[in-house]
Hints:
This protein is of the alpha+beta class. It has 3 helices and 4 strands. The chain has helices at 31-40, 45-53, 61-65, and strands spanning 2-4, 7-11, 17-21, 24-29. The chain has a 4-stranded antiparallel beta sheet. The longest helix has 10 residues, at 31-40. The radius of gyration is 15 Å and the shape is elongated. The mean pLDDT is 82.
Amino acid sequence: MGAAEGFGYVERADGTVVITHHGRVAGTLRGGRAAQFLAEVDDDPQLVMARWTGNYRRGNERTAKRHPRNQG
């Protein structure tokens, strides 16, 4: 099992990978997608798991929207 800042994953015997975030299932990968995830996860586990579950765009959208360069 790998864990990084709330994310974790479990590789099951049948090749399925279950990604969790704070103990809740965030995504399930099977087949080729599971193999691709496992090949990427060693680089930066936090970023990879966030990207694969779609949780990588949380938190800074409002801040960026209010930045002067993004106004009008």
